[in-house]
Specification:
The structure is a single chain. By secondary structure, the chain is an alpha+beta fold. It has a single domain, classed as Alpha-D-Glucose-1,6-Bisphosphate, Chain A, domain 4. The strands form two sheets. Strands 1-7-6-5-4-3-2 form a seven-stranded antiparallel sheet. Strands 8-9 form a two-stranded antiparallel sheet. The radius of gyration is 24 Å and the shape is globular.
Length: 192
């Protein structure tokens, strides 16, 4: 029988940078899927997911745009080679359009993995990213990797221009320095 392949496209409520960082982080991958994961950084790094049910190696990386990994589960026949998973990340109006291409799947297993990707990855990922975005949400992951924290801090944030405060002389001073200058009392006049 011929090897099988599948293609899935889903929109996630997060930036490509956040999806990328979460996928490649042990903590981020664990938090977004709910199954324990380990991820060694960079090309050639080994990974596991769902408590060792899935494992493989990162083959190629294009930051915030593309991840290529070798991939297999404990259900692959012993003689089967690793399948190849390619994730394409593109900005979309509602977040990130993630397109997953998986090839070299053992015969008769593609539809099971299609269902698994939705149930064990994309649905929990949507919920995870929504909890990161909703202000006032009490449920937040207890720990995040540095890359995930950095990417998450930029979700839904727009940059505001720096404020300038005018001094008495008309020249602009940074607001912080002006506040210090006007509220600080001379040492001799402080109360004890």
């Amino acid at each position: 029988m011929a090897l099988e392949s599948l293609r899935i496209a889903v929109t996630l409520p997060a930036t490509p940078a956040l999806v990328y960082a979460s996928w490649l982080s042990s903590v981020g991958h664990t938090d977004m899927t709910g199954g324990r994961a380990t991820c060694a950084p960079g090309v050639g790094g080994k990974f596991t997911a769902w408590d060792g049910y899935i494992w493989g190696t990162t083959l190629e990386l294009d930051p915030n745009r593309r991840i290529v990994q070798s991939w297999r589960t404990i259900e692959f026949p012993a003689e089967a080679r690793f399948s190849k998973v390619v994730l394409h990340l593109a900005e979309a109006e509602a977040g990130t359009l993630l397109t997953l291409l998986q090839s070299d799947i053992p015969p008769g297993q593609a539809e099971k993995y299609r269902k698994g990707w939705h149930e064990h990855y994309f649905e929990p990922m949507c919920q995870y990213f929504l909890t990161l975005r909703v202000p006032g949400t009490k449920r937040k992951p207890k720990r995040r990797s540095k890359a995930v924290r950095k990417a998450a801090s930029n979700v839904g944030r727009t940059r505001k221009p720096a404020r300038k405060a005018k001094s008495k002389g008309g020249a602009a001073k940074p607001a912080r320095k002006q506040a210090k200058a006007t509220t600080r009392k001379p040492r001799s006049k402080r109360r004890k």
